[in-house]
Design a protein that fits this description.
homodimer, alpha/beta, Rossmann fold, 2 domains, six-stranded parallel beta sheet, three-stranded parallel beta sheet, 10 helices
C-alpha cells in the first residue's frame, strides 16, 4: 500500500515558512511581498480561486489586492489595468485569473504582464527561461509538483519519469523540469498524449508517473509498475447525492487500485491541488526579493 | 540498407525555393530579406561559418552584412552594435556568432537582440513561444531536422521518438517540436542523457532516433531497432593523414553498422549540418515578411 503524499500539509508547511520569512523581513524593515489578483466577471469557480489566493496572502502576512472588474470590461481597459499594476512599485507580483471573457484575447493579456511580476509564469519569456535553465517564474502546478517530490525526498535522478499530457501549463513544463540538470530533475522523461500508441506499455516503465491528461480515472492499476511514484494532477467532479455539496472529487488516476501498487501517491483532493497556492506564494516571495 | 537522407541536396532545394521567393518579391517591389552576422575576434571556425552564411545570402539574392569586430571589443560596444542592428530597418534579422570572447556575457548579448530579428531563435522569448506553440523563430538545428523529416515524408505522428541529449540548442527544443500537436510532431518523445540508466534499452524502442549527444560514434547497431529512422546531429574531426585536410568527419552514430539496420539515416557530413543554413535563411525570410 502506497504512502499518501499529503499536499495539504506540505502546502501549509511551505506557507508557514513563508510567514516566518515575512516576520524576518518586517523586523529588518524590508518590503513585505504584495500579490494582486485581477478577476474579470463573476464566474463562481474563479471567484473561489481568487478569494482563496487573497486569503492565503492575508494568513501569511503578505499584502494583497483584489481587482474585481465587471464582465463587460474591454480588452483595452484590462490592458490598461495590467500596465498600472506593472508600474505600481508596491505590487511585487500579480495574476490575471483565467478564463477571461470571450471578447478578451488571453494571450495578449499574458504578454502584457511584466515578466518580473508574472508570478503565474505564463509569459513566454518565463517559459523560455525555464527551458534554458535561467532564473524566472515556474508555473504554479509544475512548481508545486517539484516541491512535493523534493519535500518527500523522492529520488528523481536517473529514474524514468513518464508524463501523461502535453499541456502548456502542466505536461510540457513539468517534462522539462524533470529532465533538466538539477535536483529534483535528471530523470529520463517520456511524454505521452492522445496520439501515443499503446500508452500502458510506456506507463508501465515509469518509476515516476505524472498524470495530467484531464480524463477521469484513466490510469488503472494494470498501467502502473509495482512501486512507482504516482502524481495525479487531474480534478473532476462526480455527482454524489449523499454528500452535502452534491459531488465528490476524483483525479485522472483510479486511486484505490493504483494505491495498492504504488510506493507513493497523491490523492485527489489534497494532493497536487493545494500545492499550487504554495507555489504561487513562493513565486511572489521571489518577486519581492527580486530573486526569481 | 538504409536510405541516406541527403541534407546537402535538401538544403540546396530549400535555398532554391527561397531564391524564387526573392525574385517574386523583387518583381512586386517588396523588401528583399537582409541578414547581418556579427563576428567578434578571428576564430578560424567561426570565420568559416559566418562567411558561409554571408555567401549563402548572396547566392539566393538576400542582402547581407558582415560586422567583424576585433577580439578586444568590449561587452558595452557589442551591446551598442546589437542596439544599432535592432533599430536598423534595413536589417530583417541578425545573428551574433558564438562563442564570444570570455570577457563578454553571451546570455546578455542574446537577450539584447530584438526577438523579432532573432533568427537564431536563442532569445528566451522565442524559446518560450516555441514551447507554447506560438509564432516565433525556431533555432536552426532543430528547425533543420524538422525540415528534413518533412521533406522525406517521414511519418512522426504516434511514433516513439527518442532524443539523445538535452542541450538548450538541440535536444530540448527538438523534443518539444516532435511532441507538439503539429506536423511533423505528435510523436511520443523520450529524452535520454548522461544520467539515464540503460540507454540501449530505451533507444531500441525508438522508431525515430535523434542523436545530439556530442560523443563520437556512441550509437552502435545493437542500440537501434530494425527499420528505425536515425538522425545524427554530432560532428567530430578524426585525424586522417591520408586526406588533404588531415581529418575526416564522424558523427555521434557508427554510421556503417547502423545504416545496415535503419530505414533512413543522415550521414555526417552532408546530413543535418547543411540544413542549419537553410533553416537560418528560412527564418530570415519569415523575419522579412514579418511572418515568424
Amino acid at each position: 500500500m502506497a504512502t499518501q503524499i499529503d499536499g495539504k500539509a506540505t502546502s501549509l508547511k511551505i506557507q508557514e515558512e513563508l510567514a516566518e520569512q515575512v516576520e524576518k523581513i518586517k523586523k529588518e524593515g524590508g518590503k513585505i511581498p504584495h500579490l494582486a489578483a485581477v478577476l474579470v466577471g463573476d464566474d463562481g469557480a474563479s471567484l473561489t480561486y481568487v478569494n482563496a489566493k487573497v486569503k492565503a496572502c492575508e494568513r501569511i502576512g503578505y499584502g494583497s489586492t483584489l481587482v474585481h472588474l465587471p464582465e463587460v470590461t474591454t480588452e483595452e481597459a484590462l490592458l490598461e489595468k495590467v500596465k498600472e499594476l506593472n508600474e505600481n512599485d508596491d505590487i511585487d507580483g500579480f495574476i490575471v485569473q483565467v478564463p477571461l471573457p470571450d471578447h478578451i484575447d488571453e494571450q495578449k493579456v499574458v504578454e502584457a504582464i511584466s515578466p518580473k511580476k508574472d508570478v503565474d509564469g505564463f509569459h513566454p519569456i518565463n517559459m523560455g527561461n525555464m527551458l534554458l535553465g535561467l532564473p524566472g517564474f515556474v508555473p504554479a502546478t509544475p512548481k508545486g509538483i517539484m516541491m512535493l517530490l523534493e519535500r518527500y525526498d523522492i529520488e528523481t535522478s536517473g529514474k524514468h519519469c513518464v508524463v501523461m499530457g502535453r499541456s502548456h501549463t502542466v505536461g510540457t513544463p513539468v517534462s522539462i523540469l524533470m529532465s533538466r540538470k538539477a535536483t529534483p530533475g535528471n530523470a529520463t522523461v517520456t511524454v505521452v498524449h492522445s496520439r501515443t500508441k499503446d500508452i500502458p506499455s510506456i506507463t508501465r516503465q515509469a518509476d515516476i508517473l505524472i498524470v495530467a491528461l484531464g480524463q477521469r480515472e484513466f490510469v488503472t492499476a494494470d498501467m502502473v509498475k509495482e512501486g512507482a511514484v504516482v502524481v495525479d494532477v487531474g480534478i473532476h467532479r462526480v455527482p454524489a447525492p449523499e454528500k452535502k455539496s452534491g459531488f465528490r472529487l476524483r483525479g485522472d488516476v483510479k486511486f484505490d487500485e493504483v494505491a495498492e501498487k504504488a510506493s507513493f501517491i497523491t490523492p485527489v483532493p489534497g494532493g497536487v491541488g493545494p500545492m499550487t497556492i504554495a507555489a504561487l506564494l513562493y513565486n511572489t516571495m521571489l518577486a519581492a526579493k527580486n530573486e526569481k
